[in-house]
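stuck on this one:
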Amino acid sequence: MSEAVSFEPPRGMRDFYPADMVWRNRVFDAMRTSAAKFGFEPYDACVVESYELLARKAGEEVGEQIYHFQDKSERHLALRAEMTPTLARMVAQRQKELAFPLKWTTIAQCFRYERMTKGRKREHYQWNCDIIGEDSILAEVEVLGCAVDALKRMGLTTGDFKVHVSSRKFLGELLEKSGIGTEKHAQVFLALDKRGKMPDTEIAAMLKDGGLDDDEVAATFAIMDTKDYSASAELSALFKMAEAAGFADALVFDIGVIRGLSYYTGIVFECFDTKGEFRAIFGGGRYDNLLTTIGGEPTSAVGLGFGDVVVTELLKARLGDAAAQAPEGVAVGFMFPEQAAAAVKLAAKLRERGEKVNLALHPVKPKRFFSRADAARAAKAVFLGPDDVERGVARMKDLATRTESEIEL
């Protein structure tokens, strides 16, 4: 006897039932609307990439987390773990044809084999907003402003989240002033990025493994207490422009934001909920050298990756399940088969007016119809009986106020 098939999706993967899609649509709609509002152009790409491309960019830990395989022609392929390498490949492919700066956006499904924790799956959707070919700090301002706008559009306020901002360049300057040479910075960044995830004793051991002596380790930890960013021209300019753009209240300086991936070169940022209950909502920064690592021409770039898992959990926690979808549209039902044609005509009439109509597909008792209309989050409902069809007039009920108004059939 064959073994029963499991009804569960593979570990770390997700199914989206209609109730889940309501939340997903709320998140995606906000992302797409904000991106369009800020002038980002949508793009998309294949979910399967060459393993070499992804591994070259991934570095550190991520290379071990890529889902990869050989196809029937023995090509080494992989499911994308994030969109940035694909974006770099696409830009490099047409670098001489494109008009820079580019402002591109996508919502891409990504896969990463890693240990699952709260807010982390092995499959997720990631919203990317990138500006390619612009050195000005206004690139960071536009990317961050767009992300903040999307969070507010989803229903959150700056009391619910803060974007923690720092600069790899500024941190590097502080390290150099403390006598820690640039050849050690990559190891320092990698170690400091793990603060909060492991004890400082283990961070110190990592720093020593990177060639730092005891004095340099102590100096590194002292730097992490830095609260003043005024010595950094780029950070000062960012906060000034964020003030002009109206979202400076969403930003905080945090020297502890490192971003472990080695390709970041300047300003870096991560967004967290203010109660500290969840993982980072989104993260990103300036990565001016990525195209050169895959053979493209040197090009400046700023971007962010914004996953759907954490922000959905945050929305549910802050807004409650009822906030997923406001009641909308009209439910139309009928008591006997003889009223079916009238119900179909009424549904068509309402749809022509632009209403969303959920038409019952078979006769139903009034109590059951209104119960299902409430469950389907309809704003209004029309139930047709014999008398309504005979009179040519029905009653439309507002399901929130329970008031009724007449509508001609």
